[in-house]
Structures are given as structure tokens and as C-alpha cells.
Amino acid sequence: MIAKQRSASVRVASALLAAVLCLIALPASAFAATEIADIKTVAQVQTDGALHVVEQRTYLFEEERSALIWPVTSMEADSKLEVASIRFAHSTVQGGIDGEWTSLEPVPFSSEMRDVLAATSGASGRMRSYEAAFDDRAAEGSSTSPIPEVPGFCMDARDRALYLFFPPTEGRVVFECDLTVTDAVRAFDDVAELYWDYVPADVHASAMSVSVSVQLPMPEGIEAVAGQNVHAWGHGAPGTVNVKADGTVMFRAPEVHEGQYAQAHVLFPQQWLTNLSIEAMRAHSGPRLDGARAEEEAWTDTWSAWLTNSLAVDVAFVVLGIMALVAAVALYFAFGREPKPQSESTADAKGKALGAAQVRAHDACKAYEAPLVGRLFRWDHASLDDFVALLMELADRGAITIEVVGGESPLGCGYEDLRFRSGTRAKDLVRSPIDQETFRLLFDVWGEGYASVTLSDIARHAQADPGRFRRELAGWTALLDREVRSAGFFDTKSARVQRAVMVVGCVLCLGAILFGVAGGSFVRGTALVASGIGCLVIGNYLGRRTPVGSGVEASVLELERTAQGLPSLDDMPAADAPYLFAVGFMSHESGALRVRSRAVGEADAPSFAAFWLGPRCGRGGKPALPLASQLSKKLDEWG
Length: 639
Known about the structure:
- It contains 17 helices and 19 strands.
- By secondary structure, the chain is α+β, with helices and mostly antiparallel strands.
- A hairpin with a 5-residue loop joins strand 1 (34-45) and strand 2 (51-71).
- The chain is elongated.
- The model is unreliable at 1-10, 19-33, 121-130, 342-360 and 598-603 (pLDDT under 50).
């Protein structure tokens, strides 16, 4: 039974583990509204220092898009961008073209275009449909849109970006851009240098596959040799660089996350640029090769140091997670193991011994009222089942009497309206402050001072002011909390340790989101979330009961075993019913006892247990909850 109560926390912890692991395992592109499936670029360095680029980007639009920003950054300050053509078409998964190409026509640029597109922020930055921003402009009184009505493109020279406008489109779409960047290569005395962000940092989408070839202006009869006449490096996102003999430099990156960049750095002999202008030749003087090599070596050393430090940090996080788990396990063995139950004697509600007389095992729990035993089995989690269990117990004692009255029951079809009356010997049978509070609620508050109250009266009181009704039940629960603490069922030291371990588990899980998901480290995230979930699971089982609590639990388990052997609810002792309901025995399969069929001439009145816990029938004979369960459910709904 205890395992069943705790299994809910374990399920929650497992679900949290799966969710955080999924967040860590997903690439950053999974959170973007738009992704770039692949980028295929063919670039050719012209003999005059210009760079001719034909680039295809395949976008995955999860919703309709009609505007796109294509940044072209990290070029020389005096370079110019000349666009020959831009077109788009739908693409198949295999990479083929689905349908016909649609060309975008050049349109005049206006600063209003920049303002409209800048206002369309979203999960993927400026890559957003512009209709919402245009609607805002219309609401402000502007009747015209700066966005062209026909498919077109324009260039924002200030931001070094192309604005693409096209009909609302979704799905897999490939855009092809043919452009030339003048003066893209710097010419020094010894080498020519190309610095090019082939994937700029402000693309505002994640590219899943990038392949770029840069063709150098090779003179006839000469082969390119890496490290001799051609030097090439890649920066930014991890990838590979390969120099071919024909002067083609291949850059490949398996993935470039949003916010990252991918950069090409290529050096080749300055003499290969045979058509340089006088201005380009004079713009940069002196040697460059040795300085560039030194810069790359320093960058490589920095990168290696970063990798080493990153590995050390990963190891530190793994060690931290292991230490947290080891500490949690040690605390469990020190504070979480259950003591042996008291089998021969128990304590009363005030913690005093009952005496030398031994109490039968299955009756030992009855030294405590049913709500306290229910809280013991639920590890001190509150439930309105406790209130109903106490009503059942007071009715069994005779402190209150219950009558079936006419009229429609507020519990619904299949139930009777009930009247609760104060018993003639109620003052002698009320044992505890929680009993007194129950009487006060029933008769002074809900019964408005009368010695009787019906379920309909309680329902009307609750519906008249649900907030007040909730506060009244909360006050009753708070009083029960104090009764549970005074009973001494739970070890206070292990409870404090349990809270500390649970807090550590939550902090570790939050750290997994911070360092794993946001920080992009699968190792750190996995180490933290595994240790965090481990601490939560261990903490869930770390709290323990005192010998008194263990003895009461053993007594109730014996009570359950006795009930399982009963042929029907009619054979269940009335005094056992409140306890079995409070601990949830009747809600699981082993407790589904049925009322046996009666022979002709027998009394029609059901037994006490059958009245509260017996099966019911609603409309059309449909099975309904037992009276006790339905009353607990309604009290929760009314409040």
C-alpha cells in the first residue's frame, strides 16, 4: 500500500527525466519556427578579386511565410553586392524540384520595409510573415504597404541584407540566389586573402547541412597544394576543410545552430589575381602570410584550450552528479530505512503506552482515529476522504445518527439525501479536538445552530459561498495536521533530510535545463538531470515513520488481509469500514467486495459497511461510486 502511494511521485520524476532528456537531446533548431534543411553554395573567386556566389538554401516552413531576410555579412567595407537573380520553388525530400521555379523581380528599397520586417519578431527572429505588422500600420491610418504585391527582392545596403517577398508559402522551399560581391578579396604583397562568412551569425535559423565550394582562379599548369600555395581554415561551427588539386576548397559543416556562424579563411598567391585594379593593389601593402599563420595558430591554441577546459568542466559536472547521488544514497541508509513495527503494543493518540495487555494486531490501529491512519498511509498528504472517514467513525460510535430522507440527493442519481443528527451521548463519545471541529462544522456552521443537517443543507451552504466553504474545510485539515504531528507517526529528522535532498534534486534538474538545454551541453545536462532525478526518487523514499507509525501500518495491513478474506461487505465489522476507506483499501481491486444476495425474509437494511462502501447504480443501471467516495468527491467539487 505504501509503495502504491509513493509510486505517483516516482511517475512524476520519470516524466520529468524524459522531458528534460528530450530537451537536451533535441538540437537548438528544434525550437525554431523555421529551419534550413541544407545550404549548397558554389563560389568562384574572380581574377579581379570579386566573389561570384550561387547559393541554394532549402527552408522548412512550418507555417505560411511570405517574407525572408537573407543576410550577406562579413565582407570588405568597400565591397558592393550585385544580385543577378533570385528564384524559389518547392522541393522534394530527395532534393529535387517540385513544380516550376518562380523568379523574384528587383523592387526599390525603402526604409519602411526594414521597419515592417523588424516588427515581425518571433521564435525565429525576423524570419516571419509581415501581414501582422501591415495590419498594425493599417490600424494607425496608413493605407499603403511598403511590401510589393508581386514576388520581388531588394537590397538593404546599410544592413547588408536581401529582403525577399513572395506569395504565402509553406513546406519545403528552396531559394536560389546568384550574386557577386566586388572587392571581396584583399590583395597583399605575397598572398590574396578571402575572409567570408558563408553562414552569417544573423541568419536567424539553424542549418542542418552546409556544403560550400570555393573555386580559386588557378593559372594553367599549376596545382593547388594545401600548406604550400593554398592555405585554408574554417572558423565557427565544427566542420571540415579540404583543398583539391584543381584549386577547389571544400567547406562542410554538418550543422550550424541559430546564432552560430561558419567562416572561410583562404590564402593563395596574389599573382593569381591577374585583373586587379590599381586601387585594389594599393589598398593593402606588405606581407600577410606569416601574420595569418600566426593568427590561425593562436586561434587553434585558444580553441584547443577551450576544448580542454570544456572537457574538464564536463568531468566536473559528472563528478558533481555522482557525488550528489552517493550522498543521497548514504542519507537514505542513515535516515530512510523503516524501523521495525511495534507488534505487541502501540501508543494512544497522546503517545502513551496502552499498558501491559497485548492488543490484537489487526485492532492496534484503532487506538487512533481513522483520519489519522489515512494520513499515515498517504504519507501526510491531505484528502477529503479523511473527513468522510471521520463521519463514518462517528456514526459507528453513535456520536451522530444518519437518517435517509426523501427528496433528490445533491450527490446525484442513485444516492439518498441524508440527515445527520447529534447523538444522545455525543458529548461522551467525542474524543478529540478534530471530533469537536467536525461537530462544529456540521451543526453550528452548516446546520446553522440546529442539531441536525442534511446533505442538501451542506450543498446549499457550499454553493452560496464556495470560498468560505473551502476555508472551513482547510481549517479542519489544518487541525488534523496538528493531530497527525502529535501522534508521532513520522520521524522529524528524516523529514528534514528528505526536504534537503528533494531541494538538491530540484536544483540539479534546473541546472540541467540551464547548462544542458540553454548551454547546449548534452554531457552536462545528462549528468545533472540523471543525478537530479535520482535525488528526487531517493528523497521520495527517504522519509520514514517512527516505530509507532510502523506499528499502526502493520496493524492496518493485517486489517486489509482480514478484509480480503471476507465473502461480502455484509460480513465486514462496522468499526473496520472507516479505516479501510481512509487508507484506500476499497478503491483498489482487492477491496472490491460485493454485497451478498439476501434470502427472502431477511432484513432489507444494508449493513454499515455496505451502506457506505457498497456498489451503487446510477441512471440506466450504470455503476456509480460508493456513497463514501461520492460524498468525498462532492465535498471537493463544492469547495
